[in-house]
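Hi V.,

You were right to ask for the full record rather than a summary. Here it is.
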Amino acid sequence: MNGKERILCALRRNVPDTVPVFEWFVDASVARALTGSEDILDVVEHLDLDAVNVRPDYAKRHLDETTIVDEWQIARKLTGDVLPALAASPIGDVTQHRSFTLPDPAAPHRFATLEKAIRRCGDTRAVVLNLRDGFSDMRDLLGYEAALMAMLLEPEAFGELLDRVVDFNLEMARVARQRYGVEIVATTDDVANATGLLMRPATWFKSLAPNFRRIMQGYRDLGYLTIKHCDGNIDAVVDYWIDSGIDCLDPIDPAGGYTIGQMKARYGNRICLKGNVDCTTTLCDATPEQVAEEVRQCIEQGRAGGGLIISSSNTIHRGVKPENFRAMVEATRRYGRYEP
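Predicted structure:
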């Protein structure tokens, strides 16, 4: 099997030749140390990862040396880490959201990176389109605090804007499916921390749940397999997510109290699991041998019957030792083979 076949097989909870491995993002400093390049496609090929994660492209301009603003009119600070930090949001009053124009989901440049990835490795590795399932767009457009407050104080306007961003993501998914034949969508909207949801569960179910189900069903209706990412403890919502049609859950966060073995016992007959080599401790501070042992344990606990993808418990950030990332990938290949 090649990487694309392994990933598709795992997402369908079938048994591939070996447990697949890939990452959402790899920090530039880690990438350079391993490959001499910051290009994620070079990293994927050098380490022989089974998939590459790609986001849509938005034109950006610099406000200063460390601040960029994109087509959403969202300003972000360049932190030197994998992802820039939200600095300013364009919608100051959610009740006035109709005056805000969303970007064109089908703009000619929207899928330039996706097209490059498909040309370079789409026949041999899975190309994963990284979209949203609602909350992250609301957070970026309104700001963290304002988004959380709007759910409580302006639920009608919040719901209207949420409808708009869900429609936007579904339209991007439709275009990518029709133009490029993409088969996998991942949503990386975090709504939890180590202790639980960022809002009361009742608020999540009232404000976010209906559109979460709508977008996941929409992706499935377009023909996608779906991976849902969220850090932290998600006990309050995970059953709803699965009932809404996700195919895979990521990252089975150790900080949230989870192991692959526990989640395999609870949900392994319903979804694929992706994770969960600890990127806050093991990948930062351990030896390559200790990394390999953690990978071995993950595989031992989670590979029965297929439906397992090995990755870090979030991303390969700049605190990860390059040799430990390599050790994680090599250990997956060493321990992950299924019996013929």
